[in-house]
Amino acid sequence: MGIPAASSFKRYHLEHHKFQGEDIIDVDIPTEWEGWFFDSRAKKVLWCFLQPAFYSLRPLFVNPKQPTKWEFINIACTVAFDSAIVYVWGFRELMYLVMGTLFGMGLHPVAGHFIAEHYVMNRGQETYSYYGPLNWLTFNVGYHNEHHDFCNISGKHLPDVRRVANEHYDEMPHYHSWIKVIYDYIMDEGVSPYSRVKRVTLKEEEFEAMRARGGLIK
After folding, report:
1. Nearest-5° angle of CA 28, CA 49, CA 61?
2. How far is residue 206's CA from residue 208's CA, in Å, rounded to a whole number?
3. Tens of pLDDT along 125-140?
4. What pLDDT score was predicted for residue 22?
5. What pLDDT does residue 204 have?
6. Sequence-ordered list of residues with C-beta below 8 angstroms from that of 77, at least 6 positions apart, any chain
7. pTM (2 decimals)?
8. FRET partner for 100 with CA separation of 20 to 30 A, picked from 41, 92, 167, 199?
9. Quick check: 31 pLDDT over 70?
10. Beta-carbon neighbour count of residue 167 at 10 Å?
11. What residues contact 41, with CB distance under 8 A and at least 6 apart?
12. Which residues neighbour 38 within 8 Å (Cβ) at sequence distance 6 or greater?
């Protein structure tokens, strides 16, 4: 709330789906510096706190894109919405929404989904689902294997995907607690920002062509 992110997120998220783990293209992958620096339990706690900064700034350094008209529209709508809140209720109320967004993406139970989705906790498994009660508050974002398999299905119906194909999804490693995911990530010395599957499949000319046209979508 209060931060213009929807249009930019859409552009990068489509690339995350098509090129999951692809070096430079998938900005969901932490940088080499993150993996090098956040190498202890205390530093991983700090990394969790700073998740909003990394998710916001990493794309600008790893895979920068020219802003499109939709991003400017997104900014204009957000500024108008924020201005209305300040006019009607005050600046403090706007800060409540903005800080709520930032805290909710940091060291917070709901933010456990950022780690749970793709950090390799079980060797051989790259994507994980979460089947706990917080799905009720997060539009079923925990159904992440289902989301990657059928990304055009709305979050409302992802539990139905699991139900009709439970023989596949129930056998995969999955979680029931995002709090435990965060705890295990911090306490397990074998897990760090490096614990992601990273691949290089695009040829140089393919990468340059995609960058020249501004990504998968404009």
Report:
1. 40
2. 6
3. 999 999 999 999 999 9
4. 94
5. 82
6. 4
7. 0.91
8. 41
9. yes
10. 7
11. 186, 187, 189
12. 44, 46, 47, 192, 193
Residue whose C-alpha is closest to residue 214's, from 53, 7, 30, 74: 7
193 class by beta-carbon count within 10 Å (0-12 exposed, 13-18 middle, 19+ buried): buried
- For residue 218, name the pLDDT band (cuts at 50, 70, 90): low
> For the chain, what are the domain ranges?
6-108+200-212
- For 133-164, b/e burial (b = at least 16 CB within 10 A) is ebbeeeebbbbbbbbbeeeeeeeeebeebbee
Render pLDDT for 144-153 as a digit per residue (tens, 0 to 9).
Answer: 999 999 999 9
CA distance 79 to 83: 6
Say how far residue 175 (Cα) sits from the centre of its chain: 17
Residue pLDDT, tens place only, 3-30: 999 999 999 999 999 999 999 999 999 9
Q: 174: closest CA among 124, 114, 132, 210? A: 132
Interatomic CA distance for residues 44 and 30, integer angstroms: 13
> How far, rounded to the nearest angstrom, does the alpha carbon of residue 2 sit from its chain's CA centroid?
18
d(CA 9, CA 56): 9
Write down the H helix ranges in the chain.
Answer: 6-18, 32-37, 41-49, 51-62, 69-88, 91-104, 112-116, 144-149, 158-164, 166-169, 178-187, 204-212
